[in-house]
Structures are given as structure tokens and as C-alpha cells.
Amino acid sequence: MAAALIEVEGVSKSFLTIGGETVEALRDVSFHVEAGEFLAIVGVSGCGKSTLVRIIGGLLPASAGCVRFRGEAATEPREDVGIVFQESVLLPWRTVLGNTMLPLEVRRRSKPLGDARARSMLKMVGLSGFENKYPFELSGGMQQRNAIAAALSTDPAILLMDEPFGALDAITREQMNVDFHRIWKESGKTMVLITHSIPEAVFLGTRVLIMTPRPGRIRRVIDAPFGRERSLDLMSTAEFASLTGQVRAALGLESWPLEALSNSAG
Ligand SMILES: Nc1ncnc2c1ncn2[C@@H]1O[C@H](COP(=O)(O)OP(=O)(O)OP(=O)(O)O)[C@@H](O)[C@H]1O
Ligand SMILES: [Mg+2]
Q1: Ligand 2 centroid to 162 CA: how many Å?
Q2: Is the pTM of this model over 0.70?
Q3: How far is CA 176 from the centre of its chain?
Q4: How far is the CA of 53 from the centre of ligand 2 (A)?
């Protein structure tokens, strides 16, 4: 059988803090991601999600275990993996177009081709017409679209996203979810999305991987079998409510007070 696109095998990670303590962030995490899949990963704050993204992206070494791409061990950043970080990494002195082209410039791609590619990615994320604006002139949602366009500019096979919509209000976030579902369909890319929004994970993911609190382990993997054609109406269906309920239960949120539940679903 051919190797999965991404294999995470027995990954553990401990940090030594400045105070000399050891923090165990991840413990024996294993899962596979198939080409074209949309894997959503949910877990409470501090359970090691960003650590996991950095390890998969080759930005941080694992303490144990390994990550393979198509069977090949990987320990460094790869050209075919784009990353959207939890905090915005747009350069304030560069325009929307300039920020989108940055990953292409770093890789020394041809300028005219890069320009055309960046413009087409900006169109895909709905930022046509904003090419010459600066990050401070954009809303939070537009800045995240800009970061997604930049991550897609090098045409990576895989896009890793760490809470890309975390700072957005609920209405903008739903719109971004619909747009992002379309981008996944149109681009045919493999997506790995970290989120702490249960509805977002179930709406976008073809599978939802649920992590335990720190040290992060895989608690459960749930299929979200809603096909490739998804609209916001899906969120009002009984099947959707049933799946979000399963994810919530797997996270162990059932026993939490009601206000904590509504925050985590935000
Ligand atoms: N460089 C580091 N040095 C020491 N501890 C770290 C370091 N990076 C992360 N940690 C610790 O590892 C744990 C996991 O952190 P991580 O950022 O991966 O969590 P997270 O799931 O992304 O949280 P959030 O949802 O709040 O973004 C936390 O306890 C954090 O304090
Ligand atoms: Mg994080």
C-alpha cells in the first residue's frame, strides 16, 4: 500500500522552560493524512496544537517520533507545505501584493510569474482590488485572507493552518468557513486545520481529530461524512448537531458549565 501523504508517528515533545522545568506538550501522537483530505484538529488551549503544527511544518524537532511525507522522513521546512500561523506574520511595510509574493521571493521565483500567481491567489481569497493596500488598512479577516493567499502562493500540496480564524467575530468567521470550504474544493489541496471551534471543525473537516488536554494525545478521530458540497445550511441539520455533540463529548466538555461551552464553540 502506498504511504499516506503525511504520517505522524509516535510524536512526543517536551520543552525545558527558562525556569528549568520540563513541560510535556505532546505524548505519542500518531495519525495519517491522505492526499486531498481536510483534517481538522481540535483541542483545548495549551494542549500542544501549535507545537504539533510546528513539528509537522519542520520548524521544531520532535523529542521522539517522526513525521514523514509520502514515506520520506522530514525534519526541515518543505516547499510543498504552506503554513498559516496563529499570529499574523504580514510585514507592515509591504502591500497586500508584496506580502503575498514574499514566499515566492524567498524562493527566488521569477518576478512576472510570481506577480501573476500572487494576483490569482488574492482573487481566490476575495482580495482583488486590495493589492496596493497595507496590512493596517485591512480588517482582521482580510489580513488572514492575505496570509492564506501568501501561504498558497508557492502552490504547496499541503496547507497547515493554526487557528487562522481565531481572532474573527462569529459572523465573519462563518463567512470565512464558507469561503475556505470553496478554496479547498477549488484548489484540491490537502488541508490540516487547527481550531478550537467545534462547528468550524465539523463544517470544514472530512475528519476531526480530537486531542486531550496537555500533554496532548489523540483522544478520538471522528469522520465528518458530509461530502464536498457544503453550505451554511449544513450547520442547521440534525446530523451536524449530532456530530458536534460527539466532538464536544470527546473533548470532555459535557460536564463544563454552559458559558464555557458557548465560548469554546465560538
Ligand atoms: N518554547 C516553549 N518553551 C516552553 N514551553 C512551551 C514552548 N512552546 C510551547 N510550550 C508549552 O507547551 C504547551 C503547548 O503549547 P501550544 O502552544 O502548542 O498549545 P496550543 O494547543 O497551541 O494552545 P492555544 O490553543 O492556546 O494556541 C503549553 O503548555 C506551552 O506553555
Ligand atoms: Mg496554539
Answers
A1: 7
A2: yes
A3: 13
A4: 9
